[in-house]
Design a protein that fits this description.
This is Fumarylacetoacetate hydrolase family protein. By secondary structure, this protein is of the alpha+beta class. Helix content is 24%, strand content 23%. It has 15 helices and 27 strands.
C-alpha cells in the first residue's frame, strides 16, 4: 500500500470512489491516540505514563478540499493536525522493533472535535469526534519505507497563519510510533488499511465558520523531502439543531480552556501562579448574619463610596412582603426564544432544570431574562425543588408563574412579577454558572446577593465583610440621628452630622463611668 505520493492519490480516487482522499479502500477502523506529544502534554498539564486510545467511525473520514460543519448550537469546534499511519499488513502481538514494518504509508489528518459534547462522552469521544467529515486525511500518501518514523514533521495553518509545528523525534514524542503500533497490536488486530491517528502537538485551538485549516506532513531530511501536500478543510455553520432524544451541547470554563488551548486564549481569568495559595471565599454564618442586618439601601451606599454604582438589580420585588435574601449566586442565562434553538435546548433536562436540581444550600439562583416579563422563568415545581435543596432564594428579572403557589413554598423569590405563560413563549434556557446580566447588573457565580424590601444588591465577595461592617455602623448612627430628629432637633447640621453632632454621637456610644453601658 506504500506509494509514491505524486501519483497514487489520483489513481486511488478514480479506482475507488468510495474511498476518502488517498485511501484505496475504506478502512475497517480508525484508532486515535489521546496525548502523544510532549508539547501537548505540557499544555494540558498532564503526562500519561502509557498511550491511551479512542475509536473513530469510518463515516467520519473526509477527503481533502472538503468542508466540516460546526453543529448548530455549539461554540467549541477545534482542529488537531496529526500524522496518520496507514497499516499495510495485519499486526497482532508484534514487537516494537518490527512494528514499523506493518505501516505502509503516512499522511496528514485533522482530528476535529466539538468540545461542547465532551461532557457526555466521558472519554469515548463518540459524539465530539465521531461526526461525519471529522477525520479528513490526505491529500497524498508518503511511502513509510522511505522515511524515518522519527524524522517526520507536522504543521497546521489556520487562515494562512502557522499555528502548529512539531516533529516526531525522540525529544518531541512521549510514545514513538512503533510503540503505539506494538501496543495496539497486543490488544486488537490492526488490519490492512486501518488508520492510526497519532496525536496532535500543542497549538490546537478553536475555529469558527469561514476559517480554513490546512495540515501537512512531510519528511524534510528524507530523499526528495516527500510530503503529503496540504490537507485543506473549510469550516461551515451547521443548521440542524439537536433534539432532546439524547445529550446535547454544554460547555464550561474547563472545556473552553481545553478547546482554545489555555484559559488566557479562551478569555478566562488566568490560573494562579505555581505555588500560590488561593484561599477560597466562604460566606460564613457570621458574615451572612451581618449582611441580613445590613439594609440593602445601606449596602448600596457603601458600595457606591467604593466606586461601585452598578450593583443594583433593577425592577425586581419580593413575591412576599418582608422577604429577604442573603446567599452566594448561582447563575442561569436565558436567551431570546428562537424556535429551532428551543427545540434543541428547551426540552428534556435543560439548563433551567439542571440549575434547580443542583442548587446548593444557601445559594441564590440569579436568572438573566433580559428584563422580559412576558413569560415565566420558573413555577411552583422548580421553586419547591430549590426550597427542598435549601436554596436561599431566586432573583429573576423575568416573570413567575403559579405566583401564589411559589410564595407558598416558602422560597424567597424576587422577580419582575407574575405571568401565566410558560418559558418557551419568550426564552430559551441556555447555560449555567456564567456571568449574567440580571436587571441591568452583572452577576458572577459566587457573588453575594442581598435582598430586602428596597430591592436587591450584588456584593463582590472580597468587599463583603468591609461593607457589611460599614453599613451596620452607619445604620447605628442613622438610628441615633433619627432619635434626635424625633426629639425635635432640626436636620440642618444633624443629617448628616457636623463636627458638633458627631462628637455628641461618639459621646453617646462611650461606656458609662460605672462600666454598665453607654453614658
Amino acid at each position: 500500500m506504500g506509494t509514491d505520493a505524486s501519483t497514487e492519490p489520483q489513481a486511488a480516487a478514480t479506482r475507488t470512489p468510495a474511498a476518502s482522499g488517498p485511501l484505496t479502500e475504506r478502512p475497517g477502523k480508525i484508532v486515535a491516540v489521546h496525548i502523544a506529544y510532549l508539547s501537548r502534554s505540557e499544555q494540558r498539564g498532564r503526562r500519561p505514563a502509557a498511550p491511551s486510545y479512542f475509536l473513530k467511525p469510518t463515516s467520519s473520514l473526509a477527503a481533502t478540499g472538503g468542508v466540516v460543519e460546526r453543529p448548530a448550537g455549539t461554540e467549541l469546534l477545534a482542529f488537531e493536525g496529526e500524522v496518520a499511519l496507514v497499516i499495510g499488513r495485519p499486526a497482532r502481538h508484534v514487537p516494537v522493533e518490527e512494528a514499523w514494518d506493518h505501516v505502509a504509508a503516512v499522511t496528514a489528518a485533522n482530528d476535529l472535535g466539538v468540545y461542547d459534547l465532551r461532557w457526555a462522552d466521558k472519554g469515548s469521544n463518540v459524539r465530539s469526534k465521531g461526526r461525519d467529515g471529522y477525520t479528513p486525511v490526505g491529500p497524498a500518501l508518503i511511502d513509510a519505507r522511505v522515511v524515518d518514523p522519527a524524522g517526520l514533521r507536522v504543521r497546521t495553518w489556520v487562515n494562512g497563519e502557522l499555528v502548529q509545528e512539531d516533529t516526531t523525534g525522540e525529544d518531541a514524542l512521549l510514545f514513538p510510533f512503533a510503540q503505539i503500533v506494538a501496543d495496539l497490536s497486543q490488544h486488537l488486530t490492526l488490519e490492512t488499511g486501518d488508520v492510526v491517528l497519532t496525536g496532535t502537538p500543542a497549538g490546537s485551538s478553536v475555529v469558527v465558520p469561514g476559517d480554513v485549516v490546512e495540515v501537512e506532513v512531510d519528511a524534510p531530511a528524507a530523499p526528495g523531502a516527500p510530503t503529503s501536500g496540504r490537507l485543506v478543510t473549510t469550516v461551515v455553520q451547521g443548521d440542524v439543531p439537536f433534539s432532546d432524544v439524547g445529550a446535547g451541547p454544554k460547555v464550561d470554563d474547563m472545556q473552553r480552556a481545553e478547546a482554545w488551548g489555555s484559559r488566557e486564549a479562551a478569555g478566562l481569568t488566568p490560573e494562579p501562579e505555581p505555588g500560590a495559595v488561593e484561599e477560597p471565599f466562604a460566606l460564613t454564618d457570621e458574615l451572612a448574619d451581618k449582611l441580613r442586618r445590613a439594609p440593602v439601601a445601606g449596602l448600596s451606599a457603601q458600595l457606591r463610596k467604593r466606586g461601585l454604582d452598578n450593583v443594583i438589580i433593577e425592577g425586581v420585588r419580593p413575591n412576599v412582603p418582608g422577604a429577604t435574601i442573603v446567599g452566594r449566586a448561582r447563575t442561569l442565562r436565558f436567551v431570546p426564544n428562537r424556535e429551532d434553538l428551543f427545540a434543541a435546548h428547551g426540552g428534556g433536562y435543560n439548563a433551567q432544570k439542571r440549575m434547580f436540581d443542583t442548587v446548593g444550600a444557601g445559594e441564590v439562583i440569579v436568572i438573566e431574562a433580559r428584563g422580559e416579563k412576558g413569560s415565566a422563568t420558573l413555577g411552583d415545581v422548580l421553586a419547591l425543588r430549590a426550597h427542598v435543596r435549601g436554596a436561599a432564594g431566586v432573583v429573576t428579572d423575568g416573570g413567575v408563574r403559579d405566583f401564589e403557589a411559589v410564595a407558598a413554598t416558602g422560597l424567597p423569590v424576587f422577580s419582575g412579577g407574575p405571568h401565566p405563560a410558560v418559558l418557551g413563549r419568550r426564552h430559551v434556557p441556555w447555560d449555567t454558572d456564567v456571568a449574567v446580566a440580571c436587571g441591568g447588573a452583572t452577576v458572577l457565580p459566587g457573588d453575594i446577593v442581598v435582598g430586602d424590601a428596597d430591592g436587591v444588591v450584588v456584593v463582590p465577595p472580597h468587599l463583603a465583610e468591609e461593607v457589611a461592617d460599614a453599613t451596620i455602623a452607619q445604620e447605628e448612627q442613622d438610628t441615633w440621628v433619627a432619635q434626635q430628629v424625633a426629639a425635635g432637633h432640626p436636620v440642618d447640621g444633624l443629617f448628616p452630622p457636623n463636627a458638633e453632632w458627631r462628637a455628641r454621637y461618639e459621646t453617646s456610644r462611650a461606656p458609662s463611668p460605672d462600666g454598665q453601658g453607654e453614658s
